[in-house]
Amino acid sequence: MLRLVAIVTARYNWRNDELTVGQREMARLWSVDERTVKREIKRLTKTEILLQLRPGVRGRVAAYRLNYAEVYRLSAPHWENVGPDFSARMEVQQPEPATTGEKVVRVDFGARAADVAAPTPGSGPWSRTLARLAQSDPGLHRSWFSGLVFDDFEQGLLLLKAPSAFAAQYVLTHHLRPLQGMAAQEFHGLRRIEITG
């Protein structure tokens, strides 16, 4: 697990949600030989902690993705060891089993994603922004953007409210770029987005 933590910390591409590192570089990072790397990757994919997106063939580097649902399941019995605040944050998350075609971590904030109505375009800049996000990436919109509520827009600052502090921080950390891109088309002069939970 320490090897997995090391490679994820050093080389995981969070924007694309994938790990693409050659065996030689992994061996150097882990201070082992390439045969050990092959065994470790095989073990991690066999236990489904890592999912292979693309095999490493014809000189190409293989691509892997973290299986959040499996990491969640394996780590759940140990959350209290970290502390009650960490345990409380983790209990909010309920990721669905990952597939190689799915890139969205799903979180249930009280209402089921299927119960959230799709935004109707034309009823204000925030509604139009949500409509653009829903059209661009329906899964990402259902899981993260649909729970955001417009608060204010003044002097280039767009203020939004999220269902929780965790959701606010997650969107700011992992999904700010698509949010900012779509919002800038509706909120002219947008310079910054702040989200509170």
Task: Please tag this protein with its features.
197 residues; 3-stranded mixed beta sheet; globular; two-stranded antiparallel sheet; 47% helix; 10 helices
What is the count of DSSP helices, taking H or I runs of 4+ residues? 10
Q: For the CA atoms, what is the radius of gyration?
A: 19 Å
Helix content percent band: 40-55%
SSE run: HHHEEHHHHHEEHHE
Number of strands: 5
Shape: globular
Which segments are poorly predicted (pLDDT under 50) over 5 or more consecutive residues?
Answer: 98-102, 109-121
Distance between the termini: 32 Å
Strand order of the largest sheet: 3-4-5
Content-based structural category: alpha+beta
Q: Report the β-strand fraction as a percent range.
A: 5-15%
Average pLDDT metric: 81
Sheet with most strands? 3 strands, mixed
